[in-house]
Amino acid sequence: MFYVMPNYLTVDGQSQVKPVSWKEKFAMAAEGSFDPYEFTIVGIVAGIRQADNSSPAFGQGMEGYGKRYGAAFADQVDGNVMVGGVFPTILKIDPRYFRLGRGSFVSRFGYAIDRIFIARTDSGHSMFNVPEFAGNATAIAISNVYYPAADRSWSSSLSDWGTQMGLDAFGNELKEFWPDIHGYLQRRHARRLQKQERNPSD
Asked: What is the pLDDT of residues 65-108, one digit of tens each?
């Protein structure tokens, strides 16, 4: 999405699709974790945390930045593997996002939000999205192993969990509307080229 963001877990349309195997689920989680774009985003996140001096026990300087980078990258991998691999495999849930792609903006916006709560099983039925809730909670619990003891608390874990759920909801909105945005950008670019062809001196 936006020509740089990985989008391995999106399916266009609600028609019958072949379910993915457990190996494919883990493969997609790995692709989403190790895409070159992700290394850049993790670097930015680590830089922000360094500037805010979050997790002070990590220290400052290159050593502190390296620890924050490693922790942020581990957070990402943990979340992707739990939400997209482990829990979907155990519960036979399809980890992909199935775009609605039709209807009003409001209906599509609401649909993207409720996919946080509703998952699609491998057999095509709907059920509560356990991987989203339990997977993120498990990833945060794992993160307590490598974050400084001073940063481990129920309140901080709950805050991190809520933040991640919000980010995932926002990600669903991007997946739902990116084709529309992409189409608009392409049409705008085409109109600009046509205008330049009509007015070569501009």
From this structure: 999 999 999 999 999 999 999 999 999 999 999 999 889 999 99
Question: Phi and psi at residue 34, in whole multiples of 5°?
Answer: -115, 15
Cα–chain center distance at 15: 23
pLDDT in tens, 138-193: 999 999 899 888 777 788 788 888 888 988 999 899 899 988 888 888 888 788 88
* Residues 141, 102 contacting (CB under 8 angstroms): no
Cα–Cα distances in Å, from 80 out to 76, 86, 131, 136, 200? 6, 9, 10, 9, 49
Token duo for residue 133: 């809730």
DSSP 68-106: HHHHHHHHHHHHHHIIIIIHHHHHTEE-SEEE---S-HH
β strands within the chain, DSSP E: 10-12, 93-94, 97-99, 118-121, 126-128
Per the document, the length of the chain is: 202
**Using the 8-state DSSP alphabet, how is residue 9 labeled?**
T
